[in-house]
Amino acid sequence: MTIAVFPGSFDPLTNGHLDLITRASHLFDQLIVAVGQNTAKKGVFTPAERVAFIEQSIPDLPNVTVQIETGLTVAFMQQCHATVLIRGLRNSVDFEYEQGIAGMNHHLDAHIETVCLMADPQYQFVSSSLLREVAKFGGDLTTLVPVPVAQALAQRLGSDRP
User: Fold this and answer.
1) Each residue of 42-88: pLDDT tens digit?
2) I need a labelling partner for 104 at 20 to 30 A (CA). Which of 41, 75, 84, 154 fits?
3) What's the CA gap between 147 and 160, in Å, rounded?
4) CA 18 to CA 55: how far, in whole Å?
5) What pTM does this model have?
6) Residue from 25, 50, 128, 132 carrying the catalytic annotation
């Protein structure tokens, strides 16, 4: 049985993330979505809120679970007996960034393979920081994030529209 881990901050969860989760769930026996904290960024939602958004959005994916991750992803994967790390790529900048992380993860545990999935073209321009900025000024995000996330972003960032 192949267990894969898709780590990220998911702050906020996007439809691009959901697309990758769905696609990865069809490739592996079990997929664990690991919700972590990007220490370089100030988060909008708590890890528990992010887990809830993901769980609400994937009821039809029985082989997917969602867990909070703290610490090194490699250590988390070892605890879960996972051997595949899933990453999404939107562009060449993402590739350069992920290439370095994959190298370090391989150095830390040579049994971990990184599998990169290309973002669906309709989501290639989407980034969490860009979505937060649009939400702050009341922009409509309903085609880019699940409706509950759009509503929560509008509430949290002070706008009165989703």
Assistant:
1) 789 999 999 999 999 999 999 999 999 999 999 999 999 999 999 99
2) 41
3) 14
4) 11
5) 0.92
6) 128
